[in-house]
Fold this sequence. Notes:
By secondary structure, the protein is an alpha/beta fold. The chain has helices at 15-28, 120-123, 195-205, 233-251, 273-277, 279-293, 314-328, 352-367; strands at residues 29-30, 36-38, 49-57, 61-68, 71-78, 89-93, 96-100, 109-118, 141-148, 157-158, 164-165, 211-218, 254-264, 300-304, 334-336. The strands form three sheets. Strands 8, 9, 10, 11, 12, 13, 14 and 15 form an eight-stranded mixed sheet that branches. It has a four-stranded mixed sheet with strand order 1-2-6-7. α3 packs across α8 (352-367). It is elongated.
Amino acid sequence: VYQNLLCAHPPFQIDGNFGYTAGVCEMLIQSHLDEIHLLPALPKAWATKGSFKGLRARGGYIVECAWENGKVSSFSVYAGTQHPPNGKVKVRVNGELKTVMPYTGHGQIVRDLIIVAGQSNAVGFDAPGNQLPADPADADVAFWWRCGDPQPDDHDSTCGGKWSRLQAQPRGTPANPGGRQYGNFSNASGGFGPEMSMARRLCSINKAKPLSVIKVAFSGTGFVSNDWNPGNPCYTSLVTEVKIAMALAERDNVKLNLRAFVWVQGESDATSDSSAAAYEKNLSNMLTSLRKELNAPRMTALLGVNGKFGGGSPALSTVIAGQKAIAKNPEMLARFVDTDGAEIANGAHFSAKGTLEVGRRFADALLAH
C-alpha cells in the first residue's frame, strides 16, 4: 500500500487496503478468544496517547477506547441497536480480565425499575440491618430510598438525593419518640425491607437485566390516616421521589423501564371495620392515580400485607379480601402476594428472616406474571 493509500497492484486492487485497515484494527482490538482484548499489539509509535471509536467486536459489540503511555485509560462497550446484549461481556484491560455489562442504545443504559412502598413492613422496621446477609449482587442494583416515620421530613432515612447501591438503610436521625414517631427503625443498625431479597432473586434469575429499585415507605401509615390517598403527604412524597430519581437517571443516560409497583401495606387500615371496608376502593383509586402521574398505565402492582397483624381480625380479613379483589380485576393489572408463614418478630412486623422470605415471594409473583 503506497502512502497515498493506493494498492501496489496495477491497475488497482482493493484487497491490500482492506488488509491494511484490518491489520490496524487487530493491533487495537481482538475478540476471537471469547473476550474483547484491548490494545493487544499497540505500536510503540502510538503509545503516548490515542483513542478509537466504533470498532466492532465479535457478538456485535461496539467498542471505544482511549490510552496514555501504552495503557488503557478508559473504555466503553456498547451492544448496538441491532445486537442487544446477552449478559455481561469479558474485556481484557491492561492484562486484567474484567466482566462488564455492555451499554445499549448508543451508550444508554436500560434498567428495569421496581418501586417499593407502604408502611412499616415495607420499611422493614423490625428487620435489623446487621442481620442482612451479604450478597455481592447488591453492587449491581441501583437504589434510591426515603423511609421512616410519618410524615415525610428531614428525620427520614434517605439516599441523600442521589442514586446509590442496594443496601440496608441506616437509621437516620429520627425525631424524639411520641405520637407517630417510632424511631424510623427499631434497631440502631437501621433495617431493610422486602426490596433486598426481591432484587436479589430477580437478579439471580435474569443476570442480563440491570435493575433499579426506588423505595418510599413510612411506618404506621394508611388511607384511614390520610397518608396515601392522592394528594396526601406520603403519596405526594412517593410521586416526588420517583420523578426526581427518574429524572436524575435520565440525566446520566439511564433509561428506567417501570416494571412493577410493590405495595406492602394494610395493617393500619385494619384497625376498624369502617376503614377496612373502604380499603379496596382507596387502594384502587391510589393505583389508578399513581399510574397516571407516572405515565405508566401498564404498571404491574404486587399487593401484600402481614396477615398475622395483631393476631388477625375480621377487619384484617376485609383488607386482605380487598387486595385479592383488586388482583382478580384484570383491569387493575395486580397480583396478590400471600405472606402467610413468613416469620414474624412480634404482632405487627416481620422479622429479618420473614422480611427476606416476603421479598422472595414478591419476586416470584412478578416472575410468574
